[in-house]
Amino acid sequence: MGSRSLSFAGRTQLISSIIYGTVNFRMSTFMLPKGCVKKIESLCSRFLWSGGIDTHSKAKVSWATVCLPKNEGGLGPRSFSLWNTTLCLRLIWLLFSSCGSLWVAWQRHLHKLDMGSFWTAQPKSNDSWFWKSILKLRGLATKFISCHVGNGSKAWFWHDNWSPFGPLLSYLGEDGPRSTRIPLNARVSAACNRQGWTLASPRSDQAVALQVYLSSIDLPSLASEEDSFEWVIDGKVMGNFSSNKTWEALRPRDSEKDWAKLVWFKGSIPRHSFNMWITNLNRLPTLDRLVSWGFQVTTTCSLCSAAFETREHLFLHCAFTKIIWGLISNRLNMLLPYFSNWSALLNWAKVSLPSSPSTLRLLLSHALVYGVWRQRNNIIHNHVVVLPLTIFKDIDRQIINTITARRKMKKFRNLMQLWLH
Ligand SMILES: [Zn+2]
């Protein structure tokens, strides 16, 4: 089956599952070059909007918006670059946590991580590209990795995040080692003996606070357990690295969208939902928008030839569409609804009455928007004219099929009687 015959909804699914699955495998081992990630994202975007990667089709919605979760207005696939970063943070975490792994042992040996801290390792010109990109992620990783000090033999006094003040070098500043007389490359165990801590008398408020804290904890020189590292997200210690939770902490966020549940409701028809998503964002190439982009096109609605084509006109006010709304409201035994604007339609679809539950209203408004948009394109591109009644019959058939297929779902159970009564 050619991908072009896949619906938009099918393509979104495909991008998320197959393509991301393939790339994930590679991404969990390597940091992909930025240019490569960009290319993949642009291919995904092109595939989503045109059904192929060799044809150009204007993206109706930016890839950044597409990558938001559905309840924040997107479609839900993860942004590649950030997901790649997340998976590489996992590699950094392994350097700290799994001493038993051959890969970790090799990296630690290769980069002499027992002689100096990972946090201060300088990239060398003959280092692999992979290692250099891992080092670039340190600023981000330091937010997540904290150290639980045991005997102090592993933790670096100045570089690991083992106190409530964060890494002490940034807390006390470059002058810290000199003023405390603890060398820059000291482990925590080197800063104390069996009698207590060996820091020089504090000379600043910060240093006093540090010494107060140190006097309150168990002396590492008396402890027997090893130092250990923890993956911490927003102050919460994770048992182990979680790529999903780390992704959640890193990903771009947008406000929750009230309309999302009206577009992606349980049991909705995927291609209708997808079309509704674009329509709701007002990204359909309606004539008013084409003109605003500078296209020289006629602006008259092709369905009624009597008004300027906008989203509101096409789906709410057009005489052609109003006949379909009339047939629908007849069936629902209600008065013809009047929609002053797009949100009035959403508000109408949200309402649940015993005779017309919200699920039915949503199914109908989705199907109408889909059917009217298709017919509008049919006239413009193929010069095929059909009557509103034909569109209604098509909607009717789709509603019946959908309710039949979902009759076991609670919200669909009595919809058939209500629709056919
Ligand atoms: Zn019209």
Automatic annotation (TrEMBL):
According to the entry, every stretch annotated as the Reverse transcriptase zinc-binding domain falls at 241-325
What is the protein's name according to its record?
Ribonuclease H protein
One Pfam family name is zf-RVT
- Could you tell me which species this protein originates from? Cardamine amara subsp. amara
* Annotated PANTHER family: OS12G0587133 PROTEIN (PTHR33116:SF78), REVERSE TRANSCRIPTASE ZINC-BINDING DOMAIN-CONTAINING PROTEIN-RELATED-RELATED (PTHR33116)
Superkingdom of origin organism: Eukaryota
